[in-house]
Amino acid sequence: MASSSTRARLRRRSTPAVPLVVLAVALGLGAVSNEIRTAAASRDAARPTISLPIRDGAHLVFTGRVRARAVARLQVRTEKRWKEAAGKRASRSGQYVVTTVLPGADRRYRVVADGRASVVRRFARPLAAPASGDGPAGVAPPAGVAPPAVVPPPGAPHDPEIQEPAAPLDPPAAEDRPGGPVEEPPAKEPPAVEEPEGELPPEEPPASEEPATDDCGVRPQKPEGGLWSCTFVDEFGGTSLDGSKWMPQTTWLSGMVGGELGCYVNTPTTISVRDGLLRLTSLRNLPEFTCVSPYGSFQSRAVVATVASKARFTQVRGSFEARMRMPAERAIPGSHSAFWLYPDQHTYGVWPGSGEIDVAEWFSARPANVYPSVHYAGEVGSSGANCPVPTSSSAFHTYAVEWTPTVMRFYYDDNLCFSHRWMPSNVTPPKPFDQPFYLVLTQVWGAAWNSPVAAMANGSTLVVDWVRAWQ
């Protein structure tokens, strides 16, 4: 959306002219609905897979595959029924990792997704703790059941366990299903059967294929098939911003201002890294000071923060994602946060001719939604007004865009909420989105309908957990 804060980022203006934010653009929403329905119709009906239990301290960890972005519900067998123990939404590649508390006795586990059950994995609790550092004690198998072939040495990923065929699917009682009822399977579906020893589940890629993880973690699925490859990642470790990846924006060098004459500065109070998090902070009602600019210095009482990967990292197309928590100031006008992409060169003219991709914009006056948008010359219907994130200020969420030669798809917490195909007035598609763009993270004061009011706090902070890019 073309807010005044967005335009102020792009050029210095002492009193920017600000149009109202486009919140209810009907064009393009029909395309989003059709795309979502198409994706739903093409769901993979394969049975979920589940790994052997991996002991991690006081927890058990299971991994496997389900339909992309489906919820993998880990169930444990009680005396009378299957009871849900944990749940985790799968990634865009269909992989999941789910954790539960280490049981005090032998237990059987399975995963249910889309109403279908995986094979059953049995965890056999050691009879006694090991007397030394030589590893877990042996377990006497039940009568008629062969013991595990190997007792793992210290550090091995699996505790002793016994595999057995899955029981027929009987969903847990309604009171045990916090995420709502699990779909019932077809009435005549046969019980799940354990895969033969050593055989990979059919959903798992052969060993000769590309690895499912890289420096960015689990590799997302490309729309056309295959997996994205990591090109950029910052987990914000250490105690300072990584200068090889980010350049702080400063008004004294760029001449840019943020919001209502907010001066971009690079200080520990505006840009800081600690505890694995990047914090960008805007401050207001400061003692009046002179903000130095190459286009003429001016008096200001506000400072703002932006970091960009300009001259460090640029990319044409791909997948771009950030995990962030928006500022705490909710339903009070004044704060504006954003994760966006901007062209490295103005190949097709000044803004908006060369394009802009706003992955996630947040306005404190309207905090229940986060807004994706695509800007270019002659833009029509480029803002996504149907991307609610009610807990954007109280919890971390992931905000992503898949940029292809023909369409931008925006995913919030792995859910498609907006899709846009561009038709610029100055160039022919795929222009202007055929040139390298760089990453930008911004925390500024708002303007116009989102201008700070008296009730707005004097400080507002955007917290970023990580940023990743794939191609």
From TrEMBL:
Compositionally biased region (Acidic residues): 192-202
GO terms for MF: hydrolase activity, hydrolyzing O-glycosyl compounds
InterPro entries: Beta-glucanase-like, ConA-like_dom_sf, Glycosyl_Hydrlase_16
Region of interest (Disordered), ranges: 128-223
Biased segments, Low complexity type: 128-148
Chain ranges of the GH16 domain: 195-471
A biological process from GO: carbohydrate metabolic process
Family under the similarity heading: Belongs to the glycosyl hydrolase 16 family.
Protein name: GH16 domain-containing protein
